[in-house]
Structure formats: structure tokens, C-alpha cells
Amino acid sequence: MQRVLEGRTAIVTGASQGLGFEIARKYIQAGADVMICARDGAALRKARAQLLSLAAPSQKIAARPTDVSSVSDVNDLVAEAVNVLGACHVLVNNAGIYGPKGEIENVDWAAWVKAMEINVFGSVLMCRAVIPHFKKQGYGKVVQLSGGGATSPLPRISAYAVSKAAIVRFAETLAEEVRGTGIDVNAIAPGALNTRMLDEILQAGPDKVGKKFYERSVKQKESGGAPLDRGAELAVFLASAASDGITGKLISAVWDNWMEWPEHLADLSATDAYTLRRITGRDRGFDWGDK
Fold first, then answer.
1. Interatomic CA distance for residues 165 and 182, integer angstroms
2. How crowded is residue 73: how many other Cβ atoms within 10 Å of its Cβ?
3. Which CATH number goes with the domain that contains 144?
4. pLDDT for 37-91, tens place per residue?
5. pLDDT class for 112, splitting at 50, 70, 90?
6. Beta carbons of 19 and 195 less than 8 angstroms apart
7. DSSP state letters, the chain
């Protein structure tokens, strides 16, 4: 891999396993210094050891156990990252959970709220903590992980669906809020991944997650799902100078030709393509529903 992130520092949340770990691995291969975090300290130490084995002698790899839904944890994480790595240029908000599974009137309410705290509040808190650093240096990249729940309903997995839609809209909103400051904010739809979250769905079973979604998950498990490295490669692109000026977009790692987007920056900036928007009747050929 070309070292397109040489001289850049990144914080990657939820990086002890799965896509977060793969993104951290790709960042190191691309030359970045990285701070990883997760709630499980033992898993985090193991992940850091693996990442250190891939790093050049001059690269810095730090790790800190963190609950991204905790204001103090988040502030301490960012402060330590800036102190240890010397700066922060990239934030990858990857930490997330499915939350409770089942019909909304039956799921544990505390667990539903906790999913929102981790998936939504955690990403917002991380942005609140790093944006002042980005503004001070006149440059920064926020890479927000999304999911299938952002663009289509997920019955019986409502906390996940609601949180993912919310965080994509926050990313769009933040992109506008910081426009002109040198900060780009984008969301990634990585595709259907075969990670621990898929195993969680399979363990829950069709009674909890619904027969249709369960059967789709079984097929995904058998087929291998979307490759982890595709989402990680998009995360590298969005952290690099190649993506400068691309902002406020929800990008599919699997289906979008994102590597060609820098050639069409003016078009991207002038359109609401690759964003969450309301579909009107006229968008679907109806002439009776709207003016």
C-alpha cells in the first residue's frame, strides 16, 4: 500500500476487532500514527500488539480503553491522542452496537437507550472533542461509519436503525457547519460484513430479529459477506489528501466508484446526490401526491 497517510495521525474508535481493527491496520500500512480505543482493555492490548508488529519503527501506535458514551472518557482519549501522537488529523467513528433485538414494545428500554448513547452520542461526543483541534490547524477529516439501518427500515432492530440514520444526518449537518474550515465529514456504508455483529444476529434467532432478516443473515454468513478491506480502503481514501473537498456524503464502499470522485469535485459539491433525502411521489412517477 502507498503511504498516503504519512505524517497524519488518526483516532479509530471500536478498533479492537472487526472493521475498526482493519481500518487501523490499513492506516498503519498507509503510514499514519494511530490511537485506537475500545471498551475491552484486554482485547485492545492484543490489537495494539498486532498493529505494532506491522508498524515502521518511527510510527506511534497508542491505545486507551474508552467508553465513547462517556464525556470524560472521550475528552481524556482525545487529550492523550494529541499528547502522545502530537496532533490529530483524522477521526474514525467506528464504535457501535446493534442494541436489543425484538419488537419495540418488548425490548429492554435501558438497552435501547444505551445503543443510542454509544452509536449516536458517542460519535457526536468524539466530534465535539476533536473539532477544536481540527479548526486550530485548519484541516481535519471525520470518517463516520454508517450501516444498513441508515437507508432502510430494520424491523426488530430499531435502536440500530434509528441510530444509524441519526448519525448520518449528523455527519451531513456537521459537514455544513464546518464548511470552509478545511474539515471534511463523510459517512461510510461498508456493506454487509461478516463480523461479530452478524454472529450476534444469528445467535438471536428468527424469533427476535424476524424470519426475513435472519434468513438473509444466514445467506450472508455462507457467502462471506462484503470484504472488510473494501470499507477500510474507503476509510483510507477519506483520511487522505486525495479526498480533500469531498464532504457531507454517505458513500457505499462496495457500490460507489469513490476512487474516481476527486475528478468530479465540482459536481459533487453542487448536488445532494449520495445523501439522505425525502423521496417524493414525483420521484417515483406519481403526478397526484405533490406540487
1. 25
2. 18
3. 3.40.50.720
4. 999 999 999 999 999 999 999 999 999 999 999 999 999 999 999 999 999 999 9
5. very high
6. yes
7. ---TTTT-EEEEES-SSHHHHHHHHHHHHTT-EEEEEES-HHHHHHHHHHHHTTS-TT--EEEEE--TT-HHHHHHHHHHHHHHHS---EEEE--------S-TTTS-HHHHHHHHIIIIIHHHHHHHHHHHHHHHHT-EEEEEE--GGGTS--TT-HHHHHHHHHHHHHHHHHHHHTTTTTEEEEEEE--SB-SHHHHHHHHH-HHHH-HHHHHHHHHHHHHT-B-HHHHHHHHHHHHSGGGTT--S-EEETTTS-GGGGGGGHHHHHT--TTS--PPPTGGGT-SSS--
The total number of structural domains that make up the chain: 1
Residue 277 lies in a domain: no
Residue 148 CA, distance from chain mean position = 12
Find cell 470518517 and name the residue.
143
Cα–Cα distance, 210 to 201 (Å, whole number): 10
For 237, the domain range is 9-191+226-272
